Every structure is written in C-alpha cells, then in structure tokens.
C-alpha cells in the first residue's frame, strides 16, 4: 500500500480547512422573522430555513444570490410504494395528469367540458370491469369518441405555456418509490406568477385529455421494455424484495393495470396523498425568505390537512443464500450483485455504509478502481448505494472484457469485497473520502439545483429531520474506523445476495402494450383561458440582462508562448485549470486512444495506481476530452494544493512511462467497446445520423482506426504523442482564487513551455456536411419493441446574422414542451413519448447548419408518426399565441441567464470559432420583439419545407415492413459495419 508523508499532511490540512463544522455543534435551533417561526440547523452552509405552515405544509428555503433564478421542487411523499395493488402505476399516471390543468385553466368552457369528462370517467370504470374483448373494443371506441368531443373544450399545454411565458426552464416531474416531485427553474421576478400557478395546480386538478396521455405512458412502458438496464433493475428489486413494494410494484405499473386505468382511483389517490401535511415546497435561489414565506402561506392556506395512511409492510425475511436471476436483451452482457441494507433512517449505519461503498469504488482509489479498472481486469466495474426509506440497496456491477465470462467478473468483484471484509485496504483513504465529500459539498453550494435536491432527499426520507446528520456527514465520515468498516461489511455483505446475469439474447418474455385506436384531438393552441391571462398579467419587475463583455469580464495574458484567459474566483478556494489545443480528432487518429491510455500509465516514480491515489488524497481531479477540432485537458482542486496537483498531472503527461501490457489490455477493451456499441440502439442511431450528414466517408468511418490498425498500434507511438503534446500551441484557461500575477508565476514553475510552439497537426480529412439532393431512408435492423427515427437535413454555412431567427424558431417550433412539435406529435396525436425538432448551429464559421427531428415511437405507429412530422416540416404551422409564448420565454431567460466562471472564457473561444467577437445572445435579445411569424415562415420555407431529408430509422425488420419505408424515399439498409466503420 502507498504511504507518503507529504500528501497525508496536505490531506489533513484539507480536512481541517473544510471541516470547521467539526469544531462546532450541528443542531436544530428555532428563530422568528417576518412574523413566521422557522427552524434551522447551526453551521448549515445552505442556511436553509424549515417552516411548517398551520395546515402542515413544509416549506424549505435556501437563499443563494449568485444569479437571479430559483430552483423550485414540489414533492409529495407518495409514489409507487403507495399505489394500490390493484392499480399499479397510478402515482405515475397522476404525475402526468397534473400538467393538464384545473377547472380554471386548460379549459375553454368548464361547464360544457365537465359533463363529457364525467362520461369518460364512467366509461373507463365500465372498461376497467369488462373482460369480453369485443365489448372492451366497443367501449374504447366510445371513450375515443367522447374524448374527442371533450378535447374541443380543452386547451393543451396551458401549464407549459404559463411557465414558458414567465421564463421557466426545466419544467418536468418524476415519480419513484416514495415520492412524486414537480420541478421548475424560474426567474427571481416570476415568484408571484409561479406561486399563483402552483397553488391553482394542486387545488382541483382535472384529468382531461386522458386517453392521449395514457398512450404516452404506454410509450414510456414500451421504452422500458427496450431498456436492458431497467429490466435488470426490476429483476434485482423483485428478488431483493419478495414482499415489499420496492420489488412488487414498478413505478410505471404492470401492463394489465396500464390497460385498465381507473380515473376514479387516480382521483382518490390525489385526495389521499396530495395533502399539505404530506407535501413540501422547496426553493433555492435568489429571494428574500421573509417575503417569500408570506406569499406561499397566503396562496396555499386553502389546503386542508388529512391523516395520511402510512405504508407499513411486514419486515422482509433475511436472504440466506444467493438468489440468481437472468435477463435477456440486445445490449452487451453484464452482471449485478446486490445486497439489502438498512434503510436511510438508520443514520449511523448510512455513514459507515457510505465509507464501505467509497472504499470499494470512488472512481479513483477504491479497491475496484485500482485492482480491477486500473488493472484492466474487466471492461467496466463499479459499486453504488441506493438510500431508500425502508431498505437501502448496495450493488456491484461489472462488464466483461473479450473472452471473459460473467462468472469470472463475479469472482473478481467478490474478491475485492473479501479484501474489504478482511481489512486489506489503506485506512488513510477514509480521510480522503471525507475530504472529497467536503469538496463536493462546496461545489454544490454554487448551484441552486444541488441545494434543492439535497433538501428534497432529506424531506422524502425524514421530513427534514435528518438535516443535521446530512450536514455532518463529511465530518462523520472522517470518524469511521477501519474496524467499523470491517464489521459492517461482514454483517451486511454476507452470503445472502442477488445476482442478475444480463445476457445478450432474445427476450422471449416481452409483451408489448398494444397501440389503441386514438383519433387526433384538438389542442386549441390559439385559445387562452381567463386564468392564463390573469397569471400573465401579474407584474414582473424588470431584470436587466447581463451580457458577457470579452474585454471586461475576461482578463488576457501570456504564460511564455501560451495565451492565458483568466477569470477570478472570489467565492471559494477552488480552481479549474484548462489547457485547450486547436487540434482534435480530425487531426489525429490516435488522439482518442492516447488520451484513454493516459489513465493507465505511471511514471518512473509513481505507478498508475499510485497516481490515482495521490489525486484522490489531494481531493483533486484531472480530465481529458476532445472534439473534432479541440483537445481539452482539465485539472481542478483546492488552491492550496495547486502546485502539487498541477505538477502531478504535468509529470504524468510529459514523463509517462510506456506500458505495453497496459496497451494490449486497452486494445482488448476498445475492441470490446466497439462490439458493445453495435449492440446499443442509442449509439447506432447517433452514428446513423452522422452517416446521414456526411455520407459513407464520415468522421466515424474514416477517423476510427480499423481493428487491424488498432492491433498494430504501439505504446511508443502513443507515449510520443502525449509527451509532445505541450509543445503544440494551446490556450490556458483558468478560474480560481489566484491573482493573475501569482498564477503566471506558478505556471512558469509547474507548466514547462517551449520558446516557440510547433505547427498544429494538419487535418486528416476536411469533412463537409452534405445537403441531400433527394430523400432517402437509412435503416438499421435492431431487435426492439419501438422504433427510433431521426430526420436529418444539412443546409447552409454559418451566418451570424441568422442567429436571432434561428434561436426563436427553435424555441417556437420544436425545442420544448410548449413547442409546436411536442403539442402536435405527443399531446394531440399521442404518437410518441419523446419528440423534438431542432435547427443545429455549427461550432465553426465554415461548417453547415443541420435540421434534426426525432420521434421515438412504437413500431406499428411509424406510418402515422412520419407523416405527422413531415406535415410540420413541409407546411409552416403558424400560431400567434405560440410565438408570443416563445418570445416571452426567451426574453425572460436572457434577462436572468448569467454566464460565469470559466464559462466566460469558453464562450469567448466559441465566439472566435464562429468569426465573431461578441455575446450572441445580445443580438437576439435586441431584435426579438421585431421578429414576426412571417420571418419564421420565410426561414422555414427556405431551409426546411418540402426539401429532401434523410430518415434515419433503427427498428426491428420483423415489425417494420420494407414496403412501408419505401413510401418515404429510396431505402438503404445498412449493416453495422457500414454505420460504424469497423
């Protein structure tokens, strides 16, 4: 084991620096302000206030004034755990329906709509209780008919339009075992509108446009059937929890229950669990807590508390022997080994369990990281915990390399666990774990979403009561002893576990949720409810946008021959140092491999394993990335460890020691990864889209080394590339607390530069996106329930004057839930769970834009989905109200968006790539009010309407007929070798 005095000393300095909390008590206190009493926890870095209103509603507020925005979460402590056994998936259904409005919004005429909705309720109850197939079909036809009549009085997406108009972002929701959470990111000046809308949202939700949303849930279920990791997750839970709802009820629900929904049961569920004493409003961001709590209290005082039935399952019997499960699907083989651990309410054991997990795998210095991943004994391996209320789960996962069986991977993973259970690990890593947790906590303070989601986790598990333990976690981690780890691992990681073998092969158990007959419904997108008008009339104070001034917000200097871009960090002691090269994968075929190889190399002084451990003990990180035209090397950590961290990285790059054995193992990994990519539908569709843009000679097929070239690659070639890297021109981008003078001095010591840079490596091939002259269908066969479809059309070269119209077009046409594409494809026609269309801007002035549309749909819907998207592509859908919403959304986003930290420097570099020297957002903002539907229509007709496109379709040839594809263009069926180039 590595033992070095200096890093351990540095580590103790780090622990003391970040661990001031350890010297002070962390305990609940009570205070009053603005007429309200709240609780808080001493030494809380989030300074969170915990209020409980008279009706039991929990309100948790954490002020953060770095930017004029707020992350808002509204959770209810109910999820699939509390679904009735006879109606699984109900909580998730309800989550979808809470976007459909109330009797005040989402309706043109509630008095006329309500009787029709009542009739639909009754029809679904009849449908739910009917077993005769022909009778069910008859009832569903009536449901479809009445739903069409009711939809004439419905206004789809009014909620999304109101959120967009106030500048909301991230409108979404999610359901899991113990929670359903509604998420929003809003501007500071939208608080009044937001509170008015949310208070109404939960007052009397109406289950309108239900059968089309039900079809979206069907689509979500079918997507899960094509998702091998999801199938592994369900199999794992079913085995771990034979009686508890964690294993017996999936969040989406069973196919049988999906086919037999009950609106009455959904409504009953809402009234049972969506009560103030079971809900919270969590907000983190730029606000005054004293003012905000008054507004929340006034708006939500109408809610009445009720007793909430607790889910109290019988304890699970211990697992005494391994339980084996198998899952089949098209994805590559992998293995999961899982144990049932105590629930998250057991705070002390959670602390020790966290150390156990991090000692096993922390991405750098865990037993799995060092002994398996670094040693390349498997393709991939890791461990992770899931902290649930009643029981937690800890698992190890592994993916085999070529020629390796799943049982061999299992033995390797279990071998690492045995080392832990015997105490064969470096105890000093425990202190490093605590230090890294504290570093992550500091980073999390910068972001509103990090604050809000941490508070959410505590509310769901303990209604916030465990917040002191959460704050103290990093300090408590540092107190864990080696013996406690050994005892915990032996107690909770015994012989009773679940093994899930995920094997590549046909899943013969898939039962698809069949497509019901659905008639397109009205969306009434030009109509508005009185409530929408009322919300949009609520004043929003003006916030002046802040544009990046590259001459003022960014300091420029030189370090030797290198250009320096500098931004000061005045908030904390963290730094990020980037080296950015004007070369990328288009300049070197071996570049991607060399950067991966670096992770497995050491120097004459330190092994690869020792280097990883050193970085972890310094609470520092390094990362390498590349694009077509750039390489970026990033080092980050604490300012006090700057010299040691950067020197360690520089030494690794410039003095890496060739390791032919590690290279041979890496080659095996790469060959396996290539094979695995061919079994991944997402990777296939992505590569197919690249093929559509560039043709058969594209960056994927040309720049990848062939398998024979890869096998012939030598360690010396890669080492030479790495050691020579800093001799090429690069820009240094720094964000941190050092002054520019101190930084320059430090870099001259740790970053050795030549007096003159070498000329950049030439581009291997200059690729150019090809504007299609005819419509074509590219098809790849893949065993799946659904079909994935991209529409691809490259157009013209970058033109900065077109940016405002393009930005508005994307927002209006297909870039979000209030867009035309989403409203039409999903809301009106129920043809997809996920759909979008976007006109992509190139990264350089010499490249072309390209239009891309996407629909993920059932295979038997492609003859509806493709014409529906084509109609939007070919005939401009004019909607004055949607244009109004898109403009309002963009203006309020620009007013509150802040580009900060080293993002300033990278925005500057991105602008230079496009041949401009200003913040593009300002140009759009300044002309936004002047843009009209005619401008968007002209853009649409010039670049998209009735123009040839290339369809990229991934699906099963057993479910998609070739003749159906031929209706849309010349069909070219591609092999995986043609798509990937190997």
Largest sheet: 6 strands, mixed
pLDDT averaged over residues: 93
> What count of structural domains?
4
Strand elements, count: 25
Basic shape: globular
- The helix tally amounts to 39
By helix and strand content, what is the structural category? alpha+beta
| Beta-strand fraction estimate | 15-25%
Question: Distance between the terminal alpha carbons, to the nearest Å?
Answer: 41 Å
State the strand order across the main sheet.
Answer: 3-4-8-5-7-6
- Name the CATH superfamily classification of the largest domain: Metalloenzyme, LuxS/M16 peptidase-like
Radius of gyration: 29 Å
Portion of residues within helices: 40-55%
Classified by CATH, the class of the largest domain is Alpha Beta
Low-confidence stretches: 1-23
Q: CATH fold name of the largest domain, please? A: Cytochrome Bc1 Complex, Chain A, domain 1
CATH-level-2 architecture of the largest domain? 2-Layer Sandwich
Report on this structure.
By secondary structure, the protein is of the alpha+beta class. It has four domains: 195 residues, 2-Layer Sandwich (Cytochrome Bc1 Complex, Chain A, domain 1); 170 residues, Metalloenzyme, LuxS/M16 peptidase-like (Cytochrome Bc1 Complex, Chain A, domain 1, 2-Layer Sandwich); 196 residues, Cytochrome Bc1 Complex, Chain A, domain 1 (2-Layer Sandwich), CATH 3.30.830.10; 205 residues, Cytochrome Bc1 Complex, Chain A, domain 1 (2-Layer Sandwich). The chain is 43% helix and 18% strand. The chain has 39 helices and 25 strands. The strands form five sheets. A six-stranded mixed sheet has the order 3-4-8-5-7-6, with helices on both faces. Strands 14-15-19-16-18-17 form a six-stranded mixed sheet, with helices on both faces. A hairpin with a 5-residue loop joins strand 3 and strand 4. Helix 5 crosses helix 34 and helix 6 runs parallel beside helix 12. The two termini are 41 Å apart. The N terminus is likely disordered.
């Amino acid at each position: 084991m590595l033992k070095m005095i200096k890093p351990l000393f540095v580590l103790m300095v780090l622990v003391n620096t970040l661990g001031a909390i350890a010297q002070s008590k962390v305990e609940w206190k009570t205070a009053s302000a603005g007429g309200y009493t709240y609780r808080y926890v001493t030494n809380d870095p989030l300074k969170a206030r915990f209020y409980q209103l008279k009706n039991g509603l929990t309100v948790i507020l954490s002020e953060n004034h770095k930017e004029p925005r707020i992350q808002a979460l509204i959770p209810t402590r109910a999820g699939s755990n509390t679904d009735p056994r006879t109606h699984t998936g109900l909580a998730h259904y309800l989550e979808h329906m809470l976007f459909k409005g109330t009797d005040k919004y989402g309706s043109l005429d509630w008095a006329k709509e309500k009787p029709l909705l009542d009739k639909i309720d009754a029809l679904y109850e009849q449908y739910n209780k009917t077993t005769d197939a022909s009778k069910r079909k008859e009832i569903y036809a009536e449901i479809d008919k009445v739903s069409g009549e009711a939809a004439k009085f419905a206004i789809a997406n009014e909620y999304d339009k109101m959120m967009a108009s106030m500048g909301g972002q991230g409108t979404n929701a999610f359901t899991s075992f113990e929670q359903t959470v509604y998420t929003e990111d809003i501007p500071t000046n939208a608080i009044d509108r937001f509170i008015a809308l949310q208070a109404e949202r939960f007052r009397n939700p109406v289950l309108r446009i239900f059968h089309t949303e039900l079809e979206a849930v069907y689509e979500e279920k079918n997507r899960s059937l094509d998702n091998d990791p999801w199938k592994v997750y369900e199999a794992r839970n079913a085995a771990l929890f034979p009686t508890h709802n964690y294993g017996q009820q999936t969040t989406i629900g069973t196919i049988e229950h999906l086919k037999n929904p009950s609106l009455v049961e959904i409504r009953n569920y809402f009234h049972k669990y969506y009560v103030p004493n079971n809900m919270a409003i969590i907000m983190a961001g730029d606000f005054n807590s004293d003012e905000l709590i008054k507004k929340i209290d006034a708006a939500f005082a109408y809610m009445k508390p009720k007793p909430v039935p607790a889910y109290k399952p019988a304890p699970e019997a211990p697992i005494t022997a391994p339980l084996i499960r198998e899952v089949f699907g098209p994805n590559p083989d992998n293995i999961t080994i899982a144990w049932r651990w105590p629930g998250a309410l057991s705070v002390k054991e959670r602390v020790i369990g966290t150390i156990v997990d991090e000692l096993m795998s922390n991405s750098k210095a865990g037993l799995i990281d060092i002994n398996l991943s670094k040693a390349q004994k498997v393709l991939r391996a890791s461990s992770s915990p899931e902290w649930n209320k009643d029981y937690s789960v800890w698992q190890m996962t592994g993916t085999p390399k070529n020629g390796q069986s799943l049982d061999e991977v299992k033995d390797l993973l279990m071998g690492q666990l045995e080392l832990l259970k015997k105490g064969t690990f470096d105890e000093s890593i425990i202190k490093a774990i605590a230090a890294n947790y504290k570093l992550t906590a500091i980073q999390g303070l910068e972001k509103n979403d990090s604050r809000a989601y941490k508070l959410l986790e505590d509310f769901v598990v303990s209604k916030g009561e465990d917040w002191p333990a959460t704050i103290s976690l990093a300090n408590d981690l540092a107190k864990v002893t080696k013996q406690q780890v050994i005892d915990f691992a032996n107690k909770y990681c015994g012989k009773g576990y679940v093994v899930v073998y995920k094997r590549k092969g046909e899943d013969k158990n898939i039962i698809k949720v069949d497509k019901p007959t659905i008639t397109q419904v009205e969306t009434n997108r030009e109509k508005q409810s009185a409530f929408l008008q009322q919300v949009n009339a609520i004043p929003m104070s003006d916030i002046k946008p802040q544009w990046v001034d590259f001459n003022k917000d960014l300091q420029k200097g030189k370090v030797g021959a290198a250009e320096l871009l500098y931004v000061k960090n005045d908030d904390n002691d963290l730094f990020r140092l980037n080296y950015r090269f004007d070369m990328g994968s288009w300049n070197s075929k071996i570049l991607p491999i060399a950067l991966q190889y670096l992770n497995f190399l050491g120097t004459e002084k330190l092994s690869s394993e020792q280097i990883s451990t050193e970085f972890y003990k310094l609470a520092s990180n390094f990362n390498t990335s590349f694009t077509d035209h750039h390489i970026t090397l990033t080092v980050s950590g604490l300012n006090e460890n700057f010299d040691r961290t950067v020197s360690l990285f520089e030494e690794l790059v410039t003095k890496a020691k060739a390791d032919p054995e590690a290279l041979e193992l890496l080659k095996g990994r790469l060959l396996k990864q290539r094979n695995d990519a061919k079994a991944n539908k997402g990777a296939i569709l992505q590569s197919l889209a690249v093929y559509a843009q560039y043709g058969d000679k594209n960056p994927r097929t040309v720049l990848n080394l062939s398998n024979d070239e890869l096998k012939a690659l030598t360690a010396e070639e890669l080492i030479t590339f790495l050691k020579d890297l800093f001799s090429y021109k690069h820009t240094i981008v720094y964000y941190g607390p050092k002054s520019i003078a101190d930084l320059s001095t430090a870099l001259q010591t740790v970053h050795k530069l030549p007096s003159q840079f070498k000329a950049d490596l030439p581009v291997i091939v200059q690729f150019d996106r090809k504007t299609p002259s005819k419509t074509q269908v590219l098809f790849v066969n893949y065993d799946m329930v659904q079909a994935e479809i991209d529409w691809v059309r490259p157009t013209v070269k970058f033109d900065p004057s077109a940016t405002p119209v393009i930005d508005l077009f994307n927002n209006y046409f297909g870039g979000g839930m209030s867009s035309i594409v989403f409203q039409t494809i999903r809301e009106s026609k129920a043809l997809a769970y996920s759909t979008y269309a976007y006109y992509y801007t190139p990264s350089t002035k010499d490249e072309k834009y390209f239009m891309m549309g996407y629909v993920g749909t059932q295979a038997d819907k492609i003859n509806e989905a493709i014409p529906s998207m084509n109609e939007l592509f070919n005939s401009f859908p004019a909607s004055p109200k949607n244009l109004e919403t898109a403009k309002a959304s963009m203006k309020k986003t620009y007013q509150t968006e802040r580009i900060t930290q080293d993002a300033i420097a990278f925005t500057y570099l991105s602008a230079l790539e496009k041949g401009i020297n200003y913040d593009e957002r300002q140009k759009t903002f300044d002309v936004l009010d002047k843009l009209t539907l005619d401008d968007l229509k002209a853009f649409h007709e010039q670049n998209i309407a009735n123009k040839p496109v290339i369809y990229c379709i991934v699906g099963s040839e057993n479910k998609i007929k070739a003749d159906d594809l031929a209706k849309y263009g010349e069909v070219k069926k591609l092999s995986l070798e043609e798509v990937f180039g190997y």
